[in-house]
Design goal:
The protein has one domain (31-180): Glutaredoxin (3-Layer(aba) Sandwich), CATH 3.40.30.10. The radius of gyration is 17 Å and the shape is globular. β3 (50-52) and β4 form a beta hairpin. The chain has 183 residues and is α/β, with parallel strands linked by helices. The chain is built from 5 helices and 9 strands. A 5-stranded mixed β-sheet has the order 7-6-5-8-9. It has a two-stranded antiparallel sheet with strand order 1-2.
Length: 183
């Protein structure tokens, strides 16, 4: 009987392949699944924000006015999220991809440490802003990481992607759909 309970427990554990932290289960979606925004939920305007990045450069949403961009939410402790961060970094144009920490534990709010560790783990430079803003993830409805929010040129959420994403073609198609509304 104990073996059966163990096997069922392990099957449940491995089916919840997302990040675990502070007792909260964060379920990672399967690769290539998307969470399209339901028509009734639109329009969702991305919240106003302003903060310094890992280099102490000030960033805010007005810098993105009139242009599409991607807000990527993750956490410094989520090492399996780095493959997704890397894939988005390879596809999204410069100045259009902002990396936000969705972790408010004081031991993880140093964005310089997170940036440096990510570059070391990926063995390459990441020239994107790493930003911590308390509550921003909650304000936009982030409940699981990694979590990418595609914002259109009017500042409204166009698409939400939750979970591991490494297919650069898929990310490129989503980006192209987001900017297609501009043209």
């Amino acid at each position: 009987m104990n073996r059966a309970i163990f096997i069922v427990s392990m099957m449940l554990f491995f089916s919840l392949a997302g990040c675990l932290h502070e007792g909260e289960v964060r379920i990672q979606e399967e690769e290539e699944k998307t969470e399209p925004i339901v028509e009734e939920e639109l329009p969702i305007q991305f919240p106003q924000w302003q903060a310094n990045d890992h280099n102490s450069t000030m960033w805010n949403n007005s810098m993105m006015e009139g242009e599409a961009w991607v807000a990527y939410f993750s956490a410094p402790w989520c090492t399996h999220c780095e493959a997704t961060l890397n894939a988005y970094d390879q596809v999204i144009p410069d100045g259009k991809y902002v990396i936000f920490s969705n972790e408010d534990d004081p031991q993880y709010i140093n964005m310089s440490d997170w940036h440096q560790r990510t570059e070391e783990n990926l063995n390459r430079s990441i020239n994107r802003p790493f930003i911590y803003i308390e509550q921003l993830g909650s304000d936009i409805g982030v409940q699981a990481i990694p979590h990418a929010v595609f914002i259109n040129e009017e500042g409204f959420v166009y698409q939400v992607e939750v979970g591991r994403r490494t297919n650069q073609t898929m990310i490129s198609e989503l980006w192209n759909e987001t900017i297609a509304d501009i043209n």
